Amino acid sequence: MNKLAVIALGGNAITRGEEKGTIEEQYKNSRDTIYNLIYLIRDGYNLVISHGNGPQVGNILLRNDAGEEIYDIPQMPLDVCVADSQGGIGYMLEKMLRNILKEEGIDKEVVTLVTQVIVDKNDPAFQNPTKRVGKLYDKSKTDEMAAKKGWVFKPNSAKDDKWRRVVPSPEPKDIMNVKIIKELVDRGTIVIASGGGGIPVYYDEQGMIQSLEAVIDKDAASSLLANKIKADEFYILTDVPYVFSNFGKPNQQIEEFLTKERIVQLMANGEFGEGSMLPKIKSALKFVENGGEKSVITEASKLEDRKFGSRITLN
């Protein structure tokens, strides 16, 4: 029986930090990243692929701003922007993957699913929005925007006097269309789903779906999806080949095998940054705590080596 793995692609899978984000760059990055999944496919894995969307949804928001300021085009809400990015990135990944499969002589179907993710509208994150999105503003402009749109702003960083809109990042509670995703992947179809953490929605008192101005952590949503479809393994592909302790210091050390006990120890020592490795570690650990066989954190180019990356297990 084929193993089932969920692969969470990092933001650098599509757009790299030093790039402008042209479509040519995004296609090349998509192909370079996706090609590495062939090694898992040839090993007989069934795959569900998720992806980040930070740079892409940020650019969509900037286009929103420019369209409103220059042409008086109404802005779209954040949930629609996330859906736009899911569709666009999913299309690029699916196109590249279909071409690679043809080149490699592998007969598999690929489907992209725009995915809604259920959150709690009373999640504490809504009382303390922290995720920065959109363009930079002068402080005087933020007062005007806050009054006009009800947006919340915070300083962008200690290095400048600019401000940015912040939105909540609630915990994902459920994934829509899990049964369909599971049925498709069990038939051998490669499914691209839950992109950018999914579109945050909730059920109101009448059981109707309502949207929220928020973003969901991609790795947290991917971990939940992996558990919901009873995946055997969960891979988080990022820009480093291993998890390190004392990262960037002379005594930097590879953490190749990470048990729950070791992770708790490292987190207690403040080893992982909240804006970088910590959410990945927490998501990887949560997957194995909820029944997954193992999680792996590595970079895509290491998938060819069967002894790759940092492996997270309970024991």
Outline the secondary-structure elements.
Layout: E1 4-9, H1 23-35, H2 38-42, E2 46-51, H3 54-71, H4 78-103, E3 110-112, E4 116-119, E5 131-137, H5 139-149, E6 152-155, E7 163-167, E8 172-175, H6 178-186, E9 190-192, E10 199-203, E11 209-211, H7 218-228, E12 233-238, E13 243-245, E14 253-255, E15 257-258, H8 260-268, H9 278-289, E16 294-299, E17 310-312
Helix pairs in contact: 1-4, 3-4, 7-9
What sort of overall outline do the alpha carbons produce when their principal axes are compared?
globular
Strand content: 15-25%
CATH topology description of the largest domain: Carbamate kinase
Structural class: alpha/beta
Order of helical and strand elements: EHHEHHEEEHEEEHEEEHEEEEHHEE
Task: Give the CATH superfamily of the largest domain.
Answer: Acetylglutamate kinase-like
Report mean pLDDT, rounded to a whole number.
94
Helix content: 25-40%
Any low-confidence stretches, pLDDT <50, length ≥5? none
Largest sheet: 8 strands, mixed
Radius of gyration, in angstroms, nearest whole number: 20 Å
Query: Can you count the beta strands?
Result: 17
CATH architecture name of the largest domain: 3-Layer(aba) Sandwich
> How far is it from the N-terminal to the C-terminal residue, by CA?
25 Å
Query: What's the structural domain tally?
Result: 2
Features:
315 residues; alpha/beta; 2 domains; 8-stranded mixed β-sheet; 9 helices; 17 strands; globular
Explain this structure to me?
The protein is α/β, with parallel strands linked by helices and 315 residues long. The protein folds into two domains: 258 residues, 3-Layer(aba) Sandwich (Carbamate kinase), CATH 3.40.1160; 39 residues, no CATH class. It is built from nine helices and 17 strands. An eight-stranded mixed β-sheet has the order 3-9-2-1-12-16-17-15, sandwiched between helices. A four-stranded mixed β-sheet has the order 8-4-10-11. Helix 1 crosses helix 4, helix 3 packs across helix 4 and helix 7 runs parallel beside helix 9. The two termini are 25 Å apart.
